[in-house]
Amino acid sequence: MARLQFIKTVIYGITASFLAVCFVIFPKEASEASVRGMAVWWDIVFPSLLPFFILSEFLIRFGVVTFIGGLLEPFMRPLFRVPGSGGFVWAMGLASGFPSGAKLTARLWQEGHLTKEEGERLVSFSNASNPLFIFGAVAVGFFQNVALGFLLAASHYLGNLLVGFIMRFHKLEVPSHTRHNRSTISLKQAIKNMHHDRLKHQEPLGRILGEAVNSSVQTLLMIGGFMIFFAVLNEILEIIRLTDIFAIVTSFILALVNMPNELSPGIIAGLFEITLGSQRISDTTQATLLQQAVVTSFILAFNGFSVQAQVASILSETDIRFLPFFIARCIHGCISAVLAFLLFTPLYVDRLSQPTFSLWQNPSVNKLAWGYEVLIAYYHWLLQYGSLLTAFCLISWLGWYVFKPVNMRRS
């Protein structure tokens, strides 16, 4: 064991030193990549995730998650073998995007709502790309194709659902003390449970708000650091041609599924960071739209090493292992790619073949169109005003952190 730890120390030291030398040799490229990663976090990620993080902290502390868990227990337990509160994590993860699912899973574990095995199942399918990114950034921003967003979203979220069902078989042998009653919980009992859970957090409202904002901002700062680092890392690996090693493997896989080798650079970039990978896939003119959609679906589901590193950092504060999450991401990537291939005709080709007037006169389609327009409008609003909102929030948080009461500093 001591020898293995010594080998790890040598490998970590050599790798860190090598990267540091590369950053010094290529400062211009590293700086430009850093700015690109920072821009995405500053304009989009921070202002879009901060409200979800703060709201989730309130819902947990006020016992609302316990209330929701009581109502969803008969649904979540048989299907996914997680507590009913996992339904809240799943919904928030889908709405706000990664790594919200991991953060909320860790919070529920810290509050005692999850066991280790339940946390490993829940985090495997509660992290997903949010609709804002799929429709706004990928479909419109990269592909300039409105209809493609529905295909990517359907394959992504349906694949996530299937991954959750598959991961229910993770750790089938669970000790008896972790099993829960699957009987339906009444509304009255759910309200009592919510009240009992809220009493565990009898703190002033101002303190709860301050701690919620502080925890959320610190998590987002960590996310920003990972995004910037992996943007620079991906650029450096391309400059020193180290990505050519990955290209050999991806080229072989692409040949097996009869796809052009020109998709390989986008796949490699997507393995590290999904935004850059999706953009490069959309710029590949040698591939058909079907092939681009299949590969993009895989990249979105795999999450990229940048997001996975964020999840690993969040889970490190718990006893929830990262390996099941990584395996689930590989499964999700494959399932979403297959779904994109199977659903391409019914969700994309057939939709385009319908007359525009009759399509948009359909009430159900009109509701989807309205929701889509809201997402796109919100995305463009973030591009225009997101940086100002981020600056305001960070300045406000810094002022609160410096001048907050002494008793809160000690805690």
Automatic annotation (TrEMBL):
Regions crossing the membrane: 9-26, 46-72, 79-98, 132-158, 208-233, 326-349, 382-403
Nucleoside transporter/FeoB GTPase Gate domain boundaries: 45-142
Keyword set includes Oxidoreductase: no
Record-linked InterPro entries: Gate_dom (IPR011642), Spore_IM_YlbJ (IPR014226)
Keywords recorded for this protein, A-Z: Membrane, Transmembrane, Transmembrane helix
Pfam families for the chain: Gate
Superkingdom classification of source: Bacteria
Keyword Plastid: no
Protein name from the UniProt record: Sporulation integral membrane protein YlbJ
Protein encoded by which gene: ylbJ
